[in-house]
């Protein structure tokens, strides 16, 4: 199936050239779409230079509202319009192993809407994280799965492959999240609308060695508020009109 990898970037100049080169080597049949949020460090220019050299890489320079969710939505809509059948996402900081990308893409089929590269299924794991961050991530995923009634161990992993058919049945512009809560929201909508099965495949997450993490307290707070609100609406019926569709 025709596949594309979406890479949302912001200030990834230290990683982007090595990363794109590695992806092109490990997944030669998957095209790449870099969607950059007007990075002041010149990430987009470096990506464009690599694209000219390696081919099968496109770069979207965004100047509208920044954020992981808006960038991902714009790129997904562009990918759907371009006729891709599988749309994958991953980070550009080598926390996700490019060698695993082809496997995740291969697991998408007519019955599977979403394949998640999961840290919390047998064979998965995390390296280079302090204990507090491990506990925070594990607790956050348990809480999200409980609130949203998802049978998923890793709701917040950004290493994924979606069926384009499933994405066509989601109002991407109508989703609520701005930050990484977008990941939980996508799984929630796919599950609620019964767009296909959600499969988890083990990955080992490696904390970034270069650049700065985009995670901050505002993003974590948004995720907690939205997940709690949706869980409350599911159980009480109050505010159900605000559930993502």
Kindly list the characteristics that best describe this protein:
245 residues, Spore Coat Polysaccharide Biosynthesis Protein SpsA, Chain A, two-stranded parallel sheet, 40% helix
Summarize this entry quickly.
By secondary structure, the protein is α/β, with parallel strands linked by helices. 40% of the residues lie in helices and 18% in strands. Helix 5 (131-148) runs parallel beside helix 8.
Structural description of this entry:
With 245 residues, the protein is an alpha/beta fold. The chain has one domain (3-242): Spore Coat Polysaccharide Biosynthesis Protein SpsA, Chain A, CATH 3.90.550.10. It is 40% helix and 18% strand. It is built from eight helices and nine strands. It has helices at residues 16-26, 43-54, 68-81, 101-106, 131-148, 164-168, 181-192, 217-236, and strands spanning 3-9, 31-36, 57-61, 86-89, 112-118, 125-127, 160-163, 197-202, 204-206. A seven-stranded mixed beta sheet has the order 3-2-1-4-7-5-8, with helices on both faces. Strand 2 (31-36), helix 2 (43-54) and strand 3 (57-61) form a beta-alpha-beta unit. Helix 1 runs parallel beside helix 2. The longest helix is centred in the C-terminal third of the chain and has 20 residues, at 217-236. The chain is globular. The two termini are 27 Å apart. The mean pLDDT is 92.
